[in-house]
Specification:
126 residues; seven-stranded mixed β-sheet; 0% helix; 51% strand
C-alpha cells in the first residue's frame, strides 16, 4: 500500500508559480505511475499531469502544457509539479494519486489510480 501526502499549495497572483510535492510512504513507491489531478468547486476531478514509474514518460492535459512540469525523485519518494504562469482557472484542490505499476503508459482516468492523497489547495488571484 502507498500513502501519499501533498504539500506546496497556497495563494498566488496570476502569472506566479508554485511547486507542489507529493511524498509517499512505502517501499514500492518507485514502481508506480503518479498522477496529479485537480478539482475546482462545482466541477469534476480532472487529470492534470502524470509520470510513469521510471520517469521517462510524462503526459499533460492540454490546458497546462508548456506551463506545468512533472518530475520525480525516487530516492526521495517524491513527485513534483512545477506550475508556472498560473491563471485563476488553475484554482482548485490538487491531488496526487498512485496508479499502475511498472508501465510505460501514463493513464489519465481516475479509475486507473488506486491510492490518493488528501489534496492541497491552490488559489490564483487575478
Amino acid at each position: 500500500q502507498v500513502q501519499l501526502v501533498e504539500s506546496g499549495g497556497g495563494l498566488v497572483t496570476a502569472g506566479g508559480s508554485l511547486r507542489l510535492s507529493c511524498t509517499a510512504s512505502g517501499r514500492t513507491f518507485n514502481s508506480y505511475t503518479i498522477g496529479w489531478f485537480r478539482q475546482a468547486p462545482g466541477k469534476e476531478r480532472e487529470f492534470v499531469a502524470g509520470i510513469n514509474w521510471i520517469g521517462r514518460n510524462t503526459y499533460y492535459t492540454d490546458s497546462v502544457k508548456g506551463r506545468f512540469t512533472i518530475s520525480r525523485d525516487n530516492a526521495k519518494n517524491t513527485v513534483y509539479l512545477q506550475m508556472n504562469s498560473l491563471t485563476p482557472e488553475d484554482t482548485a484542490v490538487y491531488y496526487c494519486a498512485a496508479g499502475q505499476q511498472f508501465t510505460r503508459v501514463v493513464h489519465t482516468t481516475l479509475g486507473e489510480y488506486d491510492y490518493w492523497g488528501q489534496g492541497t489547495q491552490v488559489t490564483v488571484s487575478s
